[in-house]
Amino acid sequence: MWDDKRQITLKYQIPDDKIHHFSEELEKGKIFATRCPKCGATYFPPKQDCAKCRISNLDWIEIKNEGELLTYTIIYVKPASFSQYPDYIVGVATFPEGINVLAWVKGKKDNLRVGDKVNLKVEKRDEGYYSYYLQLIDN
Fold this sequence. Notes:
Helix content: under 10%
Oligomer: single chain
């Protein structure tokens, strides 16, 4: 059987001309979603246009409140770009602003359960960029 030993590294550039506010605020420790002023649809990660109304210039809303963990999974087999990390947890939480957030889950994990309370936090990753995660509130 033929086995190729070449490795290909890909880097993506994602245009964010209309949603650069999201990245700027992450660096300040704040997390934002967008909401359509016409129909009220809320988007996270933020979108530049409403998928329902097809309008631009959506309103920015800050996600501040405590959320609730809807589901989670433990990642044992990781993609190559995360192979340097120990096993980690990814979860989905719902927030009062009307959004669901998919992110890494951090905190005391020995009694982790669906329904646990979480806060959405910002961190600067080892790779040099800012990201968000779900911080478990003492369970």
